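[Automated response] Your request has been received and processed.

Submitted sequence:
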Amino acid sequence: MANFNLGEETEKILSLKAEEARLNGLVKVLNAERKELEITVVRHMQEIGIDRLGIEGANLSVQHKRLPQVASWDEFYDYIYKNNAAYLIQRRVSSTAIDELSAEGIEIPGIEFYEEDRLSVKRS
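Generated structure:
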């Protein structure tokens, strides 16, 4: 790798990370603003008694969704266990919890590990 300057490449990485953080912050602000406007529009449409509206360049419709929220994890897990209903949970493991148990020498059936190299770059 001729002409490779580690200092310059590191500075590029740091610059990109800073720009990514700035843009992610902007995305959070924009998402919050958009959600606030959506709530305002939904409330206004409900106040005037409409659930659909067509305007130039856009169609709006209020969609009512019923979303689950766990009120009691103990009862929920009990139901899952008694009814063999593991399909009710999204399939994602907690890396932190698995790492902690593994560090204690506890092997969890069905878990495999793979190695991945990641570069950590922090401004000094």
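Summary generated for your ticket: The CA atoms of residues 72 and 99 lie 26 Å apart. The longest helix spans residues 6-47.
If you did not submit this request, please reply to this message.
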